[in-house]
Write a sequence for this structure.
């Protein structure tokens, strides 16, 4: 899940003016315009109270310094202020879906959302397989503009779980399907296709992903075993112009056990939520760095965190995770927490 984040301070302009007119001369006594830039205070914790949101995805909006949270409980995506107050943001859908990864496309005024049928995935009925959608909302109004069914591209898949979403420099959108083990592509006109199928040898689905400005995706492969630990994990580099040349990234040191949500930073490093290999859930935030164009990488930072799914990064390189407890999906209080390496 995944994201280029920019911070804009609020600008307050104070101006006074007066004008005196005569037949021969006009005098403008407008005072000097004073500009005062106020930077928001980014708290260590943001507490959201009183909503059974069950968020899996988080994204930061540069336009007004707010966070978006998705909803596994198929509620609307909410917009959260730095003080923890919030309001429902998305609207206009013909039917509800659970939502996971979210991505802002500022250039095209879009909020991109991975949607799936969480009810079917949890009903233990082998005849129901869920569904995978890309939902595109207007970033200013929150009204849905496109609702694109991706499941029909793979009618023989055992199940569908649209998990994370990324956008490239041309506006193409990529959606990982954790259960169908593919990455879909949707172009600016809304045409959908299967972009990449996992043939790496890892028996896992595509989970977190993000677009690198040098023209490729980094995609996390991940399985969660019966103990709740990450298993069969890897990281894959997929050139957007040649997906068949995808290669597994070699991680040269310890600490990486697969990513749930992940973000490529402005400096090209990757920050993501991983597992410590002993306790269930995403309980470690790590940063990966590569000096060979992501043929290989190493862990350069690691920090224990509360159980979480993904991370958002502000322009000041502040890492914020959404604390997630899948054992209490209907709890009413949720925490966005800053993590410092």
């Amino acid at each position: 899940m995944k994201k280029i984040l920019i911070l804009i301070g609020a600008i307050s302009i104070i101006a006074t003016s007066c004008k005196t007119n005569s037949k021969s001369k006009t005098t403008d006594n407008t005072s000097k315009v004073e500009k005062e830039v106020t930077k928001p205070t980014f708290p260590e914790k943001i507490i959201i109270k009183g909503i059974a949101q069950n968020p899996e995805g988080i994204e930061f909006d540069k336009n007004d310094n707010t966070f978006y949270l998705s909803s596994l409980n198929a509620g609307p995506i909410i917009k959260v202020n730095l003080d923890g107050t919030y309001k429902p943001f998305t609207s206009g859908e013909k039917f509800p879906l659970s939502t996971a990864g979210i991505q802002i496309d500022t250039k095209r005024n879009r909020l991109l959302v991975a949607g799936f049928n969480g009810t079917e995935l949890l009903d233990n009925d082998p005849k129901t397989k869920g569904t995978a959608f890309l939902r595109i909302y207007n970033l200013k109004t929150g009204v849905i503009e496109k609702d694109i069914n991706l499941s029909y591209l793979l009618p023989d898949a055992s199940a569908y779980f649209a998990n994370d979403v990324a956008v490239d420099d041309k506006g193409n959108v990529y959606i990982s399907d954790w259960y169908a083990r593919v990455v879909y592509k949707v172009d600016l006109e809304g045409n959908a296709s299967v972009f990449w199928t996992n043939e790496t040898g890892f028996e896992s689905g595509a989970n977190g992903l993000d677009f690198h400005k040098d023209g490729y995706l980094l995609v996390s492969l991940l399985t969660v075993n019966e103990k709740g630990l990450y298993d069969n994990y890897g990281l894959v580099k997929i050139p957007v112009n040649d997906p068949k040349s995808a290669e597994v990234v070699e991680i040269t040191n310890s600490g990486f056990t697969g990513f749930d949500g992940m973000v490529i930073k402005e400096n090209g490093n990757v920050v993501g939520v991983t597992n410590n290999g002993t306790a269930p859930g995403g309980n470690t935030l790590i940063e990966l760095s590569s000096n060979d164009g992501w043929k290989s990488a190493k862990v350069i930072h690691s920090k224990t965190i509360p159980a979480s799914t993904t991370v958002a990064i502000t322009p000041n390189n502040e890492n914020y995770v959404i604390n997630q407890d899948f054992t209490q999906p209907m709890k009413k209080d949720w925490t966005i927490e800053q993590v410092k390496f």
